[in-house]
Amino acid sequence: MKRKKSNIKSQHTSRIQDSSFVGAQHSMKPLGKYLGMDTFSWHNPDLNLLNKTIQNFPFDILWLGNENEVESFLDFNPRVGSKIKSIVLCGADMKDNCSDKIISVSSIVNALEFVDTLIFKPGILLLTASDADSEFSLKSFESHVLKSQIRK
Q1: Which of 28, 64, 72, 96 is buried most, with the most CB atoms less than 10 Å from its CB?
Q2: What is the span of the domain harbouring residue 119?
Q3: If DSSP codes are grouped into helix, strand and coil, which group holds residue 120?
Q4: What is the distance between the alpha carbons of residues 31 and 135, in angstroms, rounded to a whole number?
């Protein structure tokens, strides 16, 4: 009888952990320092929460994201855009990169190569991912950041 109770409790705890994990996928995740920047990833960010978060960041922001979410955000929050120093559009149709603020690259790998050439201290590095490649982008970004931290 005790075993069965324990098993039920274990299943309940497991369900709670599973549901909190699902919620955690949709919140900002701190990743520590990368190239001197406080680094975060965010899967499927809500535009209102993203707006409030960006407003409250203490430093300028280097944002890696896809074209649709960046355009939606900037349309929704044009004034907050001044806090964003640079934007790297990952997987976007290649723009001419005539803007000093927005650079487009074909993939997260190219975005990381571009970021590695920058000196941006103090600053915030934020990756948001909400497109079809979001899982791949998040894993690639988080792995790249972790590897750089281990090398130190």
Answers
A1: 64
A2: 27-151
A3: coil
A4: 16
